[in-house]
Amino acid sequence: MMNLETPNYPTMSADSLNWSDFDPTGLRFAIVVARFNSTITEKLLEGAREALGKAHVDVFHVPGAFELPLAAKLLAQTHRYHGIVALGAVIRGDTPHFDYVAGEAARGLQDAALQTGIPVAFGVLTTDTIAQAESRCGGKDGNKGFDAAMTALEMARFAISVAH
Ligand code: INI
After folding, report:
1. DSSP readout, 59-113?
2. Is the Cβ atom of 64 under 6 angstroms away from ligand 1?
3. pLDDT one-digit tens code per residue, 82-133
4. Does the beta carbon of 66 sit less than 6 angstroms from any atom of ligand 1?
5. Residue 139: beta bridge partners?
6. Which terminus in the chain has less CB density within 10 A, N or C?
């Protein structure tokens, strides 16, 4: 489990962060996970759960990354959650499908956050190869599910601080 005193959040220097901004205590999150490329997305889920630590977490599965935005928006509209973490893996094939799925997932998740005011973290890998995805779900490039959950935590604390 993550230890808040020695966090592993690689997108920024740990020195520049105030770790109370990442305190999961008393917060509620929904994680939405795409089943497409599930060997990858289930590892993203493990990372996200680790980051959310003692927070209350409900997990929901949807068919693919394209379905993440509607699920995130419906969950955000319940106002049961301080933040939503969306997890998926879109891997480039030989057709333009990749661009539609990845683009709509990104746009739709941002829309869900902006339309509801509930933070939605983008934990969707968009890679050229399976190997690149594997190295980002607990391999040498970290776990982007963990990073997305940390972002959701930080933004949830931000939203709470602005509201009070
Ligand atoms: N869904 C993904 O999550 N990742 C992919 O790589 C992918 N590819 O490559 O097709 C994918 N497609 C399914 C898509 O998300 C929808 O579930 C489908 O189009 C039905 O709406």
Report:
1. EEEESSGGGHHHHHHHHHHTT--SEEEEEEEEE--SSTHHHHHHHHHHHHHHHHH
2. yes
3. 999 999 999 998 677 889 999 999 999 999 999 999 999 999 999 999 999 9
4. yes
5. 142
6. C
* 31-73 residue pLDDT tens: 999 999 999 999 999 999 999 999 999 999 999 999 999 999 9
Which residue from 90, 28, 85, 43 is spatially nearest to 63, judged by alpha carbons? 90
What are residue 137's phi and psi, to 5 degrees? -125, 40
Please provide the CATH number assigned to the domain covering 26-163. Answer: 3.40.50.960
pTM, full prediction: 0.92
Distance 7 CA to ligand 1 centre (A): 33
Q: Which residue minimizes the CA distance to atom 1 of ligand 1? A: 64
**The tokens of 31 are what?**
């994680």
Q: Report strand pairing: 137-139 vs 142-143.
A: antiparallel
**Length reported for the chain:** 164
CA distance linking residue 81 with residue 93, whole number of Å: 35
Tokens of 127: 């890679």
